[in-house]
Amino acid sequence: MSRDVPVKPDYTNLDLPEPPADRPYVLLNMVMSADGKVVIDGTEAGIGSKTDQRLMRELRVNADVVLNGASTLRASGTSSRLGDPGLEQLRLDRGKDRYPIAAIWSRSGDLPLDRIFFKARDFEAVVYLSSAAPEERYQAVLAAGRPVHRLPAGTPDGSGELRGMLAHMRHELGARVLLCEGGPTTNAEFFAHGVVDEFFLTLGPVIVGGRATLTAVEGPKAFPKELVKRLELMSAVPNPATSEVYLRYRVAR
Ligand SMILES: NC(=O)c1ccc[n+]([C@@H]2O[C@H](COP(=O)([O-])OP(=O)(O)OC[C@H]3O[C@@H](n4cnc5c(N)ncnc54)[C@H](OP(=O)(O)O)[C@@H]3O)[C@@H](O)[C@H]2O)c1
């Protein structure tokens, strides 16, 4: 195989099952170094190639909502744009809006209101704010002009915000497919409460190192042996041109 020919899967038209009644079908997407890290100098920039970024946008073609945790918004900014008229047309041809709805969730309400997520008007966006956030922060975020939906905090198993957000997406936004684009704290909560259906992972050809460097899933505690999440490989595509591998897993139930 020539090293000059990029090889990639086509993620523009995933064959996905019906979503559950109480939430969208959840895809999670991350790019990770060969030593399991997901940031270099505090952001994901530099791990994945342009082909990886293309795949991220192809995944968005399938999504009704694209979610990031608030720390990712603060570190990198987020949007749900596709950056390619061809990909946008695919959505339009399928009767969807040009872009998925962008979403973030936050407990603190400490959000950078000057970022594209808040300023842009070419894509819709929604903020999910825990009811643990102070009222003045809620008011400040609301004044930025995006809809803000408050989430129940302090439920016994700690999943109130997550389940509240997913139910709102499914029932109020009509979302059938949610693409969660991290970061690791958000991923950990999704895995801990068993609401990830598929995990898309690009393995990048870099070693980052560092004991404290974030990995793809960073919850407060490791899962014990009986609760580790098991994955079934759906596809693995090596790309000799970029030295990346594009992995798609189904989460075993
Ligand atoms: N390699 C990759 O593919 C990739 C992808 C995405 C991000 N990243 C990197 O990951 C880093 C950020 O990841 P992270 O793990 O620190 O954070 P994160 O998952 O992006 O965001 C965590 C934040 O989400 C909010 N949140 C979490 N659980 C919540 C709940 N139950 N209810 C309401 N809000 C909740 C909280 O926001 P508040 O703090 O506002 O309360 C929390 O601090 C960045 O450096 C980014 O560049 C890498």
Topology:
Blueprint: E1 25-33, H1 50-62, E2 65-69, H2 70-76, H3 85-93, E3 101-106, H4 116-119, E4 125-130, H5 135-143, E5 148-151, H6 160-172, E6 177-180, H7 184-192, E7 198-204, E8 231-239, E9 244-251
Parallel strand pairs: 1-6, 1-7, 2-3, 2-6, 3-4, 4-5
Antiparallel strand pairs: 7-9, 8-9
Helix pairs in contact: 1-3
What does this structure look like?
The structure is a single chain. Strand 3, helix 4 and strand 4 form a beta-alpha-beta unit. Helix 1 runs parallel beside helix 3 (85-93). Helix content is 25%, strand content 23%. The chain is built from 7 helices and 9 strands, in the order βαβααβαβαβαβαβββ. It folds into 2 domains: 25-63 and 183-253, Dihydrofolate Reductase, subunit A (3-Layer(aba) Sandwich), CATH 3.40.430; 65-176, Dihydrofolate Reductase, subunit A. The longest helix is centred in the N-terminal third of the chain and has 13 residues, at 50-62. The model has no long low-confidence stretch (mean pLDDT 96). With 253 residues, it is an alpha/beta fold. Bound molecules: NADP nicotinamide-adenine-dinucleotide phosphate (NAP). NADP nicotinamide-adenine-dinucleotide phosphate binds next to strand 1, strand 2, helix 2, strand 3 and helix 6.
